[in-house]
Design a protein that fits this description.
InterPro entries: UPF0473 (IPR009711). This is DUF1292 domain-containing protein. It holds the Pfam family DUF1292. The protein is of the alpha+beta class. It has one domain. It is built from 1 helix and 5 strands. The protein has a 5-stranded antiparallel sheet with strand order 1-2-3-4-5, covered by helices on one side. The protein is globular.
């Protein structure tokens, strides 16, 4: 990533109360849901965006099959229309 690239960040708190900052890599729609692809130094995670307007929040996706299907669909979309 170039030095002048601007990223939005979110802070996620895990079940033990530890906070970690993630860059928002992508927001995308699939099957009437909105998903956020987030990355940190050592991991990439996928979360569902729930709520509307200023009342939005992130929800973890615990079903590995749902997560795999969403990642696969995202990769197909990226391959079909790569960023410049």
């Amino acid at each position: 990533m170039a030095e002048n690239d601007v990223r939005d960040y979110v802070t996620i708190e895990d079940a033990e109360g530890r906070e970690k900052q993630y860059a928002i890599e992508a927001l995308f729609d699939m099957d009437e849901n909105v998903y956020a692809l987030l990355s940190a130094e050592d991991e990439t995670i996928l979360m569902r965006v729930e709520g509307e307007g200023d009342e939005q929040y992130l929800v973890g996706i615990t079903d590995p099959e749902e997560q795999a299907a969403i990642f696969d669909a995202y990769q197909i979309a990226v391959d079909a229309a790569p960023a410049e």
